[in-house]
Amino acid sequence: MQRRILAVIMLVLAALLVIVSVVAFTPLGARVFPFLAQAPTATPVPVLTSRGTPPTVSARSAYLLDADTGNMLVNINGQQRLPMASTTKIMTAIITLEQGNLDQLVTVSQDAVDEARLHNGSNAQLVVGDQIRLKDLLYGLMLPSGDDAAIAIAKAVGGSVPAFVQRMNRYAQRLHLTQTHYSNPDGLTYLTPQGKPDPNLYTSAGDLARLARYAMANALFAQIVQLQHYVLPATAHHHAYTWDNIDTLLSTYPGATGIKTGYTPEAGYCLVFSATDTHHRIIGVLLHEPGVAQRFADASTLLDWGFALPVLPPPTPRTS
């Protein structure tokens, strides 16, 4: 009798198991037994590909960003304050473009010409007494990196060099360049009364990259810095000038579009560079490179690495 009862119980349990199995895997089962329902399929979330380790460079500081999205691609000591040499002229140029009268005739003064000669700086070979349009002086500022052009521009736009430098620092504050301060419009290293390099001219690679991104949004600035040569014919107001761009990356890297070289013994060899391909635009900065050729080689290496990365969406804006 006990065996018969046990057999009946086993048959009943087996039947119940079959019923539960069938119901559980039907829509009705999903409604009756919610915990058995299949979990909803989530919308696929893109997986951000690992960017890996950026290439090694010889610069003391380096920064690379996607100019379209603002995404940072490389940051090597990007917040370290360092001398910037003639990359200073990026700020000089953008203030001139935004605040100057580009058709104004600017008379080249003796002190402008002396700026490069007395400090052994680069120059645009300006001739004292020449009257040159402010717009044309920008080519002499950015291509041959004319310190003489920087002084002429600063006096014309700011009224005086000190007043123009004040504008430069106000611009730096407005653009949130917190690691940047200017003491002249050309980037030359002045000596203090104690014979030491002026400590008040500095930037960071990160700040310079952000400034360059801002500047490249100005169509005329972008047009100027990607030119390899500029010829200014003689007029009744000035001599003829031919200015060659000393940024050789423009002729050696496909898609290069600028931006500015720099050198002083204190700053080393500096480079703010940009390039574009079919996918996106990249801006980079190298500060305190040991050699002139090394800065261009490192820039090419960084650009190759940056263009090989997947293009990511812009960072989500912070909310207060």
Category by helix and strand content: alpha+beta
Q: Please bin the fraction of helical residues.
A: 25-40%
Just give the CATH class: Alpha Beta
Question: What is the strand content?
Answer: 15-25%
Whole-angstrom Rg = 31 Å
Fill in the CATH topology.
Answer: Beta-lactamase
Q: What does the overall shape look like?
A: globular
What labels describe this entry?
Beta-lactamase, two-stranded antiparallel sheet, 320 residues, globular, five-stranded antiparallel sheet, single chain
What would a concise description of this structure say?
The chain is α+β, with helices and mostly antiparallel strands and 320 residues long. The protein has helices at residues 2-24, 27-32, 89-99, 110-118, 134-142, 147-158, 161-174, 205-216, 219-225, 249-252, 292-307; strands at 61-66, 72-76, 105-107, 131-133, 229-232, 241-244, 256-264, 268-276, 281-289. It has a single domain (61-307), classed as DD-peptidase/beta-lactamase superfamily (Beta-lactamase, 3-Layer(aba) Sandwich), CATH 3.40.710.10.
Structural features, described:
The protein is α+β, with helices and mostly antiparallel strands and 320 residues long. The protein has one domain: Beta-lactamase, CATH 3.40.710.10. The chain has eleven helices and nine strands. The strands form three sheets. A five-stranded antiparallel beta sheet has the order 2-1-9-8-7, with helices on both faces. Strands 3-4 form a two-stranded antiparallel ribbon. The longest helix has 23 residues. The N terminus is likely disordered.
